[in-house]
Amino acid sequence: MAAARRARAGGGGGGAGPGFGRAAEPPPVPQGLLRLARRSGQLNLAGRGLTHVPEHVWRINLDTPEEAQQNLSFGAADRWWEQTDLTKLILASNKLQSLSEDVQLLPALTMLDVHDNQLTSLPSALGQLENLQKLDVSHNKLRSLPEELLQLPRLRSLLVQHNELSQLPEGLGQLLSLEELDVSNNQLTAIPTSFALLVNLVRLNLACNQLKELPADLSAMKSLRQLDCTKNYLETVPPKLATMASLEQLYLRKNKLRSLPELPSCKLLKELHAGENQIEILNAENLKQLSSLCVLELRDNKIKAVPEEITVLQKLERLDLANNDISRLPYTLGNLPQLKFLALEGNPLRTIRRDLLQKGTQELLKYLRSKIQDDGPGPNEEPPVTAMTLPSQSKVNIHAITTLKLLEYSDKQAAEIPEAVFDAVGANPVATVNFSKNQLKEIPPRLVELKDSVCDVSLGFNKISSISSELCLLQKLTHLDLRNNFLTTLPEEMEALKRLHTINLAYNRFKVFPSVLYHLPALENILLSNNQVGSIDPDAAEGAGQAGNAGPAEQ
């Protein structure tokens, strides 16, 4: 039997025998390393400048080792016939441009690491490694993944970050055992719908790709604890993602989000990173859903105000609001018991001295707490009713109505305007209405009551998806602000607004220039940026003589 093994070794091309041509060159894989690998089942060939994998590495469990061909006496530790099958092979940081199909000669492999090479493709034989649990092919030049990869029933970790992938196999969801998937730093524009089948996935990294949307099917990943979507082109997060009850870390930095996602079922969410987006408003209701949050990172956005409801985040330890447009802070911020880090640099804060900001988080929180005491009612106490305040939740400024002709109910996150707000107007003429920064889904019906006097209406930063007939009856209207809503069209009835001079439709969802705007004789300013309008009819615009000042339409 030994003779047969030796004969097979002689013809099998172990290729490292002494005294033949290449003996003067140091072998690429030292025999001592191979001996150790036969005992341990692990072989580390990282950083050896390999341009190809020597054949005897693939055949390490098939061919008789070189030392068996020599007249040697073996100790108990060197019994090559008692070798262990290779289970871990590390080929990282070499110069490999391809892998041989001979990889199938190592069926016991549980881990294969070939990261940081120059691979442009992977062998189909990988699909025969049915015991493989971890595959790291990151930092290569791969443009596709072989379909055979989907035949690995035990694969738990697949790392393909930093390659040149423009798409993933549609059947990737067949890897039912997968717990970790990293496809970051590629050129992906879409995610296969089969991802929904990866119910055991714990960590998913989609960062640094070209994704414009996430499939709602991701919500089926009930085990997912970490989701990284940093540096893509996301404008929204599917509402269905709110059902991912196991999610603990969500990274949405460097996208195009205009608001925080609604995550009512993510009771375990501990970290939310949404810096470097276009967020202008913090929705108080959204904050109330994040009671387990420890880290909230919102730096480099356009946030103008921090709602009092921030105090519901009783477990918050880090709050990063640097480089926003915040001019004042709620004093109740000082009552967050676990807060250890608060970043505020780069904000136009007017109520806090610069030297106080430089003293650190604890001194700042101490100052905010002291201001709560100085200012009287605490965050849970009802404010006193005065001549300027209605004895209701609406808190309408009567003085503004009577002297400034201003009806204001903004930044309340209200789903509808309370009846008391309109009741407070009485017989007073109102010229300006500001209902911005709420959660309105439609034009308040009672707005028509102000049609005899109102000329300036602001309904920006709401959730309005259509314009009702009530608005079209405000025939004295000269300025209309509807920015940051969900509008896709304008009704032809708006042609009745003969005095309309300026309309702001920025940050909506228009794909076509609203044709009714061509028929408004007084219209001079159209702000339509950050929509998807591809073109304006120059003939119609010239005929109307009004579209010359239109804001740029985002392509």
How does this model look, in words?
Keywords: Leucine-rich repeat, Repeat. Residues 9-20 have a biased composition (Gly residues). The chain is low in regular secondary structure. The chain is 13% helix and 10% strand. The chain has helices spanning 2-12, 31-40, 55-58, 284-288, 354-357, 361-374, 398-404, 419-423, 469-472, 538-544; strands spanning 42-44, 88-90, 111-113, 134-136, 157-159, 180-182, 203-205, 226-228, 249-251, 271-273, 295-297, 318-320, 341-343, 406-408, 432-434, 456-458, 479-481, 502-504, 525-527. The strands form 2 sheets. The chain has a 13-stranded parallel beta sheet with strand order 1-2-3-4-5-6-7-8-9-10-11-12-13. It has a 6-stranded parallel beta sheet with strand order 14-15-16-17-18-19. Strand 14 (406-408), helix 8 (419-423) and strand 15 (432-434) form a beta-alpha-beta unit. It is elongated. It starts with a helix and ends in an 11-residue tail after the last helix. 36% of the residues are buried.
Any key phrases for this structure?
six-stranded parallel sheet; 13% helix; 19 strands; 555 residues; little secondary structure; 10 helices; elongated
Low-pLDDT residue intervals, each spanning 5 or more residues: 1-27, 376-394, 545-555
What is the percent of helical residues?
10-25%
Mean pLDDT: 84
Structural class: little secondary structure
Q: State the major sheet.
A: 13 strands, parallel
Q: How many strands appear in the DSSP assignment?
A: 19
The gyration radius over C-alpha positions equals: 33 Å
Strand ordering within the main sheet: 1-2-3-4-5-6-7-8-9-10-11-12-13
The N- and C-terminal alpha carbons lie at a distance of 75 Å
N-to-C series of helices and strands: HHEHEEEEEEEEEHEEEHHHEHEEHEEEH
Proportion in β-strands: 5-15%
Shape: elongated
Number of helices: 10
